[in-house]
């Protein structure tokens, strides 16, 4: 079922009042770990990034292909990520939902967003000269059509701000096969794009207020920070 917002955008019925929190941050900054922590809270629907789809679409691995040859496969991966992110934003299917007494949780926490896929990763491929102009133009046309015609509400962005060095260490520890070739410079470029977008606010539209949590700490200290910020996060506020 669908309806239209006052701006004429397509809206998924029943989703109008759901609070949407996006957890943003560099690769291996601790987003999934954060989502796993909050998944223990009642009435929160948790949606992690569909990385398994990006690693296996009908037997193909666009994530792996992109890291091997970004110029050839960047558009393929990013087109698919844009689709799967849109699907996540619009999905009415309940994610990891603990102790939820309602049919659909009043709050959704999701890992990244269609916005960061475009403003961070597509942008990085393009700026680093690894995405041909025509691929960037086609992806941009798709993104603009989607965001102009479909309501993709986000109420709060939680930015896990971490140093690229920390991410590099954690990435090596996590040891995802496709990511073994990621150099520190790649994480530095992603970090800079995140900082320009969410801290300096000089690059692209920021679709929601931003709550910054420093994410270089060990797990125990991160949990303390999540508890200190719990009320803000669950009320969708950064103040
Ligand atoms: N605060 C932390 N301190 C140390 N290691 C962490 C911390 N948070 C996450 N990790 C580990 O770092 C790796 C990346 O974390 P993950 O949550 O998967 O990051 P992301 O989802 O942002 O890519 C995982 O191996 C995870 O267990
Ligand atoms: C959104 C997005 C992600 N990727 C890549 C970056 C990482 O290798 C994985 C996601 O893993 P993370 O630990 O959750 O950061 O996917 C990409 O290349 N393009 C994108 O738009």
UniProtKB/TrEMBL annotation:
Reaction equation(s) it catalyzes: 2'-deoxycytidine + ATP = dCMP + ADP + H(+); thymidine + ATP = dTMP + ADP + H(+); 2'-deoxyuridine + ATP = dUMP + ADP + H(+)
EC number(s) recorded for this UniProt protein: 2.7.1.21, 2.7.1.74
Top-level taxonomic group: Eukaryota
Residue sites binding ATP per the record: 25-33, 170-174
GO biological process entries: carbohydrate derivative metabolic process; DNA biosynthetic process; nucleotide metabolic process
PANTHER family: DEOXYNUCLEOSIDE KINASE, THYMIDINE KINASE 2, MITOCHONDRIAL
Family to which this protein belongs: Belongs to the DCK/DGK family.
Protein name per UniProt: Thymidine kinase 2, mitochondrial
Organism of this sequence: Oncorhynchus tshawytscha
Gene, per the UniProt record: TK2
